[in-house]
């Protein structure tokens, strides 16, 4: 089969023929239909510092996908041939304290599909049944292919109650935009999103987030004035990884405000702890998705009318992967989806 393989410890990826995988016990083989390209894939493609530490070569990369089950291993009872599925990108150990308690998203021994386990940028992928999410028949295939980052957005958005609250989302990347759309759909009052990239702010507006501001031009204090807010934001979703964005967020929260942090800073960052203490803020780190509560919530949100499809701005044949990474590196895109059915 064809697969995009990180063959060498250097920039780039190789499209090559590799053996088709087989289903082991409690595993299935999935024919991949569409895949999303994630920032993680871009790190691996560019071979930055993080990738050099995290990835072992050779490995097939990619973890955002939708596909159909084409082979079933021994002892698989819950899935059938032809089922439309996506996969949770974290393989958990099953025996640490958190796994044993059913809190699999808190496993300390997780392995990443497409990072240190064969990924989905291939015609076929094998996964354990414990990592499958079966889609409803009416799901849009492209939307199904980005359930993984949609799940990051949902997991971050629902860390704290947002109904009737004023929510600040810093970073209008695909995940920030989806997070903003989720809290808006769920009943937040004002939803403000910030970025420093006008194209991404425009994309946010296309998804219905009208309060989209370039922080180089408009301060969060001005935004609050414009919206008639007097006491600061109740909930913050940090989706940029940018230290300045996080510092501005802390300075603009209401007393007792709650922040969920998904954005990954490139290194240690300073924050003004006096602001955290005297504003009595709660800050919670967020990683991945909740297995499988986030997946349930995603399916439910879509069926309740949330439309995240406009966040997908580019569609390409998998053979054009170089172009996909070029678009991602330029940063003016939303989600880029590769088609594996060509
Ligand atoms: P992205 O890089 O596409 O988007 C980040 C956005 O932040 C960009 O549009 C950038 O222009 C913007 N930004 C930069 N400086 C800013 C500032 N000062 N104020 C406001 N915005 C600013 O990333 P994404 O794919 O949407 O993911 C969002 C973040 O979440 C990234 O940091 C990513 O690494 C992280 N992430 C974390 C997890 C996790 O499990 N914790 C999973 C996926 C992604
Ligand atoms: Zn575990």
Automatic annotation (TrEMBL):
<feature type="binding site">
    <location>
        <begin position="286"/>
        <end position="287"/>
    </location>
    <ligand>
        <name>NAD(+)</name>
    </ligand>
</feature>
<feature type="binding site">
    <location>
        <position position="175"/>
    </location>
    <ligand>
        <name>NAD(+)</name>
    </ligand>
</feature>
<feature type="binding site">
    <location>
        <position position="96"/>
    </location>
    <ligand>
        <name>Zn(2+) 2</name>
    </ligand>
</feature>
<dbReference type="GO" id="GO:0005737">
    <property type="term" value="C:cytoplasm"/>
</dbReference>
<dbReference type="InterPro" id="IPR020843">
    <property type="entry name" value="ER"/>
</dbReference>
<dbReference type="InterPro" id="IPR013154">
    <property type="entry name" value="ADH-like_N"/>
</dbReference>
<comment type="pathway">
    <text>Amino-acid degradation; L-threonine degradation via oxydo-reductase pathway; glycine from L-threonine: step 1/2.</text>
</comment>
<feature type="binding site">
    <location>
        <position position="200"/>
    </location>
    <ligand>
        <name>NAD(+)</name>
    </ligand>
</feature>
<dbReference type="InterPro" id="IPR013149">
    <property type="entry name" value="ADH-like_C"/>
</dbReference>
<feature type="active site" description="Charge relay system">
    <location>
        <position position="43"/>
    </location>
</feature>
<dbReference type="Pfam" id="PF00107">
    <property type="entry name" value="ADH_zinc_N"/>
</dbReference>
<dbReference type="InterPro" id="IPR050129">
    <property type="entry name" value="Zn_alcohol_dh"/>
</dbReference>
<dbReference type="GO" id="GO:0019518">
    <property type="term" value="P:L-threonine catabolic process to glycine"/>
</dbReference>
<keyword id="KW-0520">NAD</keyword>
<feature type="binding site">
    <location>
        <position position="195"/>
    </location>
    <ligand>
        <name>NAD(+)</name>
    </ligand>
</feature>
<dbReference type="GO" id="GO:0008270">
    <property type="term" value="F:zinc ion binding"/>
</dbReference>
<comment type="subunit">
    <text>Homotetramer.</text>
</comment>
<feature type="binding site">
    <location>
        <position position="38"/>
    </location>
    <ligand>
        <name>Zn(2+) 1</name>
    </ligand>
</feature>
<comment type="similarity">
    <text>Belongs to the zinc-containing alcohol dehydrogenase family.</text>
</comment>
<feature type="binding site">
    <location>
        <position position="64"/>
    </location>
    <ligand>
        <name>Zn(2+) 1</name>
    </ligand>
</feature>
<feature type="site" description="Important for catalytic activity for the proton relay mechanism but does not participate directly in the coordination of zinc atom">
    <location>
        <position position="148"/>
    </location>
</feature>
<keyword id="KW-0560">Oxidoreductase</keyword>
<feature type="binding site">
    <location>
        <position position="99"/>
    </location>
    <ligand>
        <name>Zn(2+) 2</name>
    </ligand>
</feature>
<feature type="domain" description="Enoyl reductase (ER)">
    <location>
        <begin position="12"/>
        <end position="338"/>
    </location>
</feature>
<comment type="function">
    <text>Catalyzes the NAD(+)-dependent oxidation of L-threonine to 2-amino-3-ketobutyrate.</text>
</comment>
<keyword id="KW-0479">Metal-binding</keyword>
<keyword id="KW-0862">Zinc</keyword>
<feature type="binding site">
    <location>
        <begin position="262"/>
        <end position="264"/>
    </location>
    <ligand>
        <name>NAD(+)</name>
    </ligand>
</feature>
<feature type="binding site">
    <location>
        <position position="107"/>
    </location>
    <ligand>
        <name>Zn(2+) 2</name>
    </ligand>
</feature>
<dbReference type="InterPro" id="IPR011032">
    <property type="entry name" value="GroES-like_sf"/>
</dbReference>
<dbReference type="InterPro" id="IPR036291">
    <property type="entry name" value="NAD(P)-bd_dom_sf"/>
</dbReference>
<dbReference type="InterPro" id="IPR002328">
    <property type="entry name" value="ADH_Zn_CS"/>
</dbReference>
<dbReference type="GO" id="GO:0008743">
    <property type="term" value="F:L-threonine 3-dehydrogenase activity"/>
</dbReference>
<protein>
    <recommendedName>
        <fullName>L-threonine 3-dehydrogenase</fullName>
        <ecNumber>1.1.1.103</ecNumber>
    </recommendedName>
</protein>
<dbReference type="Pfam" id="PF08240">
    <property type="entry name" value="ADH_N"/>
</dbReference>
<feature type="binding site">
    <location>
        <position position="93"/>
    </location>
    <ligand>
        <name>Zn(2+) 2</name>
    </ligand>
</feature>
<keyword id="KW-0963">Cytoplasm</keyword>
<feature type="binding site">
    <location>
        <position position="63"/>
    </location>
    <ligand>
        <name>Zn(2+) 1</name>
    </ligand>
</feature>
<dbReference type="InterPro" id="IPR004627">
    <property type="entry name" value="L-Threonine_3-DHase"/>
</dbReference>
<feature type="active site" description="Charge relay system">
    <location>
        <position position="40"/>
    </location>
</feature>
């Amino acid at each position: 089969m064809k697969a995009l393989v990180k063959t060498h410890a250097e920039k780039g990826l190789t499209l090559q023929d590799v053996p088709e995988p087989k289903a082991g016990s409690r595993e299935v083989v999935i024919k991949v239909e569409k895949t999303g390209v994630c920032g993680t894939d871009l790190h691996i493609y560019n071979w930055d510092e993080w990738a050099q530490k995290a990835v072992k070569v050779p490995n097939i990369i990619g973890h955002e996908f939708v596909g159909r089950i084409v082979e079933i291993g021994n002892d698989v009872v819950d899935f059938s041939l032809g089922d439309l599925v996506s996969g949770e990108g974290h393989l958990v150990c099953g025996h640490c304290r958190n796994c044993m308690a059913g809190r699999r998203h808190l496993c300390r021994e997780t392995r990443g599909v497409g990072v240190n386990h064969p990924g989905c940028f291939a015609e076929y992928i094998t996964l354990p049944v414990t990592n499958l999410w079966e889609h409803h028949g009416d799901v849009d295939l492209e939307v199904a292919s980005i359930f993984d980052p949609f799940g990051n957005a949902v997991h971050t958005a629902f860390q704290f109650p947002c109904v009737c609250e004023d929510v600040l989302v810093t970073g209008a990347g695909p995940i920030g935009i989806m997070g903003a759309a989720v809290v808006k759909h769920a009943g937040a009052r004002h939803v403000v999103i910030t970025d420093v990239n006008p194209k991404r702010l425009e994309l946010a507006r296309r998804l219905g987030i009208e309060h989209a501001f370039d922080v180089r031009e408009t301060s969060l204090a001005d935004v609050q004035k414009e919206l008639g807010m007097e006491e600061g934001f109740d909930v913050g979703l940090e989706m940029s990884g940018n230290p300045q964005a996080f510092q501005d967020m802390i300075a603009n929260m209401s007393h007792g405000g709650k922040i969920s942090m998904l954005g990954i800073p490139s290194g240690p960052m300073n924050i003004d702890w006096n602001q955290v203490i005297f504003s009595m803020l709660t800050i919670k780190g967020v990683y991945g998705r909740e297995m499988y509560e986030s997946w349930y919530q995603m399916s439910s949100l879509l069926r309740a009318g949330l439309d995240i499809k406009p966040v997908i701005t580019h569609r390409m044949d998998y053979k054009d992967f170089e172009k996909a990474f070029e678009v991602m590196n330029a940063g003016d895109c939303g989600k880029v989806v590769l088609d594996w059915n060509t």
